[in-house]
Amino acid sequence: MFCDRRLPHAGACRAGGRRGIIVGAATRRIVALARQANLQASEVSDSDTRLRTKARRKTQRPKLHKVILVNDDFTPREFVVAVLKAVFRVNEDQSYRIMMTAHRRGVCVVAVYTKDVAETKASEGTEAGKAAGYPLMFTTEPEE
Ligand code: TYC
User: What is the model's pTM?
Assistant: First the structure.
């Protein structure tokens, strides 16, 4: 053990003779590095001595996909409203507004989900129309 007066003491120095101090392995590494580089130990931080074995990466959020309701001239309004309520769990009011937006503008974004969920909901809606003999259509597209 050695004593470096520039470091905060982690243990007691022995008075006289060989001065000793009890320090941990991290401190010893810091002092060794500082000596090598001719630096004050206080100029070397503990993080300089620890190897990072794994890059820390933030979890990436999955890209979201829009489900789009497409207007047509044949599917009854009430049927569209019923499908929206059943598949997308929206209430009567929201469902009516979505249907009317698609009716007036040609398309309406119903909701956004992860790719799998968006595609499943779109085909459920489209299939419900098909089963009843209507050309009702839902499509999906990735969000920018
Ligand atoms: N345009 C249809 C009608 O007038 C109603 C409708 C609305 C159909 C929206 C599809 O995505 C749609 N009966």
Answer: 0.64
Q: Give buried/exposed letters for 100-115 (b at 16+ CB in 10 A, else e).
A: ebbbeeeebebbebee
- State how far the Cα of 20 lies from the Cα of 140, in Å rounded to an integer: 72
Give the structural domain span for 34.
Answer: 2-42
* 57 is a domain residue: no
How many whole angstroms separate alpha carbon 64 and alpha carbon 62?
A: 6
Structural domain total, the chain: 2
- Same domain, yes or no: 18 and 81: no
Could you tell me if the CB of 126 is within 6 A of ligand 1?
A: no
Q: In this structure, what CATH number is given to the domain that contains residue 106? A: 3.30.1390.10
Residue located nearest, by CA, to atom 10 of ligand 1? 71
54 lies in some domain: no
Q: Measuring from atom 12 of ligand 1, which residue has the nearest CA?
A: 71
Per-residue pLDDT of 92-140, as tens digits, reads 999 999 999 999 999 999 999 999 999 999 999 999 999 999 999 999 9
Ligand 1 atom closest to residue 77's alpha carbon, by position in its atom list: 5
**Which of 67, 69, 72, 126 most suits a substitution to test ligand 1, by most atoms within 8 Å of the C-beta?**
72
